[in-house]
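Retro notes
What went well: the complex prediction finally ran end to end.
Inputs used:
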Amino acid sequence: MGRPPCCDKVGIKKGPWTPEEDIILVSYIQEHGPGNWRSVPTNTGLLRCSKSCRLRWTNYLRPGIKRGNFTPHEEGMIIHLQALLGNKWAAIASYLPQRTDNDIKNYWNTHLKKKIKKLQTALDPHKASDSTTFQLVSKNYGEKRSLDIINNASALTLNQSSTYASSTENISRLLEGWMRSSPKSTTLKRDQENNDINLDNNDISGIGTAVAATSLQCYAAKAEQESCDFISHEEFESLLSIENLSSVAWEKSSDSNPSGYQADFTDERLHFMSERKHRLENQPPVSFIEKWLLDEAAGQVEEMMELSPIF
DNA sequence: AAAAGGAACAACCGCACAAGA
DNA sequence: TTCTTGTGCGGTTGTTCCTTT
């Protein structure tokens, strides 16, 4: 006996999200922050269940998510952590702040499993089990680091949990991408754009998450060129607060349409979107923070590189 | 050029758990 | 204490894209 479904399934849209839906969701979250997912479909008019909205945000739209190819360093981290923790994707993801558990899980299932099997077969055709993977990796990786990982796990997890990073550029790019996308534009295109966004931003969310920077986190950060920073959470929040990012009152448009928002865009909404876009583009750039963080982290990153013989 | 098969990944489903009423 | 709600998590499925024939 599980819980009842999060929403009744009648009239609920399933399948891939459209750019329009993404925009609506992002706009709403910009305004209200993530959370209270049950109210999201009601307030936005999205024909999605709350859970779907949350997942979409968590796994795809949330700023600071890095998409695309995993670096060899990340691969190594995943392999090692998987051997240590098993299929605890969320736990593993906490060491790779830019990656979602879903992403890691997918990557494991589609790439790493095969890779490891191949490697094991090559090394020892008779033994091909997960435990040998661990031994193989761990041997190179070093016992001490393994212990560090475990010791730091709780601190990191705590640290991650309160993170909500907003990225002006991310949202703005998303809007731009949607604005200029032809009807034929696909998820792939969005992927590409998100990729660009994240490359540009180099993950601002890291600022928030790295307050209690541990050695492992620096290590993880290395893979991403992410920052092991020394900015306080408060500072971060004030720099990139939701208030700073929010613009046109969303309620306005939804209030003026008591019958509920429909999925198709009205002129009013398009106007709302373009106004938002304009405002977002005029937000102060955050690149100086990125630069500062990258400079700050550069030294540590190099150190970590030295310490990781197998990756 | 078209079809088939496989790979990759986004999204869904069901369950568990914590918090609050 | 019990029930409801919100959220997290891991497994699985479905769709799209890519490669091969």
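What we learned: The CA atoms of residues 66 and 142 of chain A lie 27 Å apart.
What to try next: split runs per interface for comparison.
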